[in-house]
What we know:
By secondary structure, the protein is α/β, with parallel strands linked by helices. It has helices spanning about 5-10, 15-30, 35-50, 85-90, 95-105, 145-165, 180-190, 205-225, 230-240, 240-255, 265-275, 295-305, 320-335, 340-345; strands spanning about 60-65, 110-115, 125, 170-175, 260, 285. It has two domains: about 5-55 and about 335-350, Orthogonal Bundle (5,6-Dimethylbenzimidazole Phosphoribosyltransferase, Chain: A, domain 1), CATH 1.10.1610.10; about 60-330, Nicotinate-nucleotide-dimethylbenzimidazole phosphoribosyltransferase (CobT), large domain (Rossmann fold).
Amino acid sequence: MGLxxxxxxxxxxxxxxxxxAAAERQDQLTKPAGSLGVLEEISIKLAGITGxxxxxxxxxxxxxxxxxxxxxxxxxxxxxxxxxxxxxMNFVHGGAAIxxxxxxxxxxVVVVDIGVDAQIDNxxxxxxxxxxxxxxxxxxxxxxxxxxxxxxxxxxxxAYKEIDSGVKLLATGDMGIGNTTPSSAIxxxxxxxxxxxxxxxxxxxxxxxxxHKRKVITDAIDMxxxxxxxxxxxxxxxxxLEIAGLAGLIIGAASRRVPVIIDGFISSAAALMAGRIxxxxxxxxxxxxxxxxxxxxxxxxxxxxNPMLHMDMRLGEGTGAALAMTLVExxxxxxKEMATFAEAGVSDRELKID
Length: 354
């Protein structure tokens, strides 16, 4: 049995009993019922994921998958693909936004070369390269089915490695010039949504380039005919290696009953892919924020996930997920550290919601 299939078979429903116990404890805490809103919802969801009412997320990791895209040859990005390895080294040196926000959240950043079109020899970059970037999907499939599965399994392997080291909370991050194009193509191919309301400007392309980007995507889908009922076929034909790796990370986390925070548009395309491969995996996802990239909101709607933050962000890297980590940790502390009415000697009849 392959690693992917094994992981999929291990993904189970949330623990309803633990969620009920967590909800009951929330109602016993010294506050009006429901008054902490999403913080309460997160603590209940975590109970369902882990099977325990009390949870700690003191060990947190943001996995940044990096890969290049052959479709950048079509002029769909404002930046050249040479920026991808340059940014990978910026992550290593701690100078990127994700490094700053990860330090703020007390999280470790793991940088993975799953498909950068350059040789990166650095001990602080995890080399798991499937190939040197995807092929140009305007000319043919982005990768073979075997390569797509291998990239998914890279993500599963990394999830397992992190969890085995004691990590209790994972988050997704990405780096890959041009990767809003395959993310948009995945959304269009899997949902049949209209292209005009789906494809955004990515790194900041102009109106003419945006029209061209939309045409590249629609023409590729018309040519390749990705099968929406076979998500791995969609991934292979119009996807990206870092997107596949992040989808695998989500599947791996779900198979080990560990929550995973989803970042922005690219990460959410990976989440949509994971959700189509294993609908049960959606229960293990926590949406961090909603990006200004138009497709992001649509993906969250498809997944039925509500973002915690509305910050007008569109950087990726895992930045929104890093911010959300602090809120998830806060939720675990509320249910664990806050006094109950009985403990505090407070009558619950005296507290009412305004």
